[in-house]
Amino acid sequence: ASFFEDGTETLTAVAGNGYSYSQLGGALANGGAGVFVNGASAGWIRLATSTPSMEVTARIGTIAANSSTTQYFIGYTNLANAGATYETAPTAGCFFTASSTQANWRAICRTALATATNIDTGIASTSVSTGAGKWNTFRIDADSTYATFWIKNGDGIMTKVADISTTYPSTTALNAGIHWGRTTGTQAIQFDFFGLNVQWRKFTPNL
């Protein structure tokens, strides 16, 4: 995986209680940063033909005072990872998102900014409050016509939170990763994660 940012944002290794994790940070307006799984080219995944499965454990870190435009993303997006538009929401993809104006993680598939299916997962992101969020494990399995979204809430079990087949970007070139972005505010941002993995879904023969 590779780290990208559009200003002076950072990727830092942090020691936890018996484990370590990575932290995406920054304190600039019109900024953002992310880590993306390397592929043959930018926008190397097409959901219908690649049929990928992505999993990562993540949390929104300690928040002093989130600005009203902060957004967090996990999954497949058409963000130009080497560009400077992290503050702009992806216009296509299938991903989890949280923001400083919503209390829960949401599952979204969209083919355009105004053409989207948006499902409230019911799992708190804590992005509207102070303090660090809970560690959750996120997974998105993509197939030819739909994506299945899963969340392991803290120490719970992996639970399906959404199936989305409408507004599905089956042939759009996408990247897989985790990132944050915002247009206003200079408060310190912390987006923590570990165990980022993308693999092709395994074929089970009908014997």
Characterize this entry briefly.
The protein has one helix and 14 strands, in the order ββββαββββββββββ. It is mainly β and 207 residues long.
Tell me about this structure:
It is a single chain. The chain is built from one helix and 14 strands, in the order E-E-E-E-H-E-E-E-E-E-E-E-E-E-E. With 207 residues, the protein is mostly beta strands. The protein has one helix at residues 47-50; strands at 2-5, 10-15, 20-26, 31-36, 52-60, 71-77, 93-99, 104-112, 115-124, 136-142, 147-153, 158-164, 175-182, 189-200. Strands 1-4-13-6-7-8-9 form a seven-stranded antiparallel beta sheet, with no helix packed on it. A seven-stranded antiparallel beta sheet has the order 2-3-14-5-10-11-12.
Q: Reading side by side through the largest sheet, how are the strands ordered?
A: 1-4-13-6-7-8-9
SSE succession: EEEEHEEEEEEEEEE
State mean pLDDT (0 to 100 scale): 85
* Tally of individual helices: 1
Task: Note the beta-strand portion.
Answer: over 45%
Number of strands: 14
Q: Which regions have little confidence, pLDDT < 50, spanning 5+ residues? A: none
Helix content: under 10%
| Structural Rg | 16 Å
What oligomerization state is this entry in?
A: single chain
- Gross morphology is globular
**Could you give a short account of the major beta sheet?**
7 strands, antiparallel
SSE blueprint and pairings:
Layout: E1 2-5, E2 10-15, E3 20-26, E4 31-36, H1 47-50, E5 52-60, E6 71-77, E7 93-99, E8 104-112, E9 115-124, E10 136-142, E11 147-153, E12 158-164, E13 175-182, E14 189-200
Antiparallel strand pairs: 1-4, 2-3, 3-14, 4-13, 5-10, 5-14, 6-7, 6-13, 7-8, 8-9, 10-11, 11-12
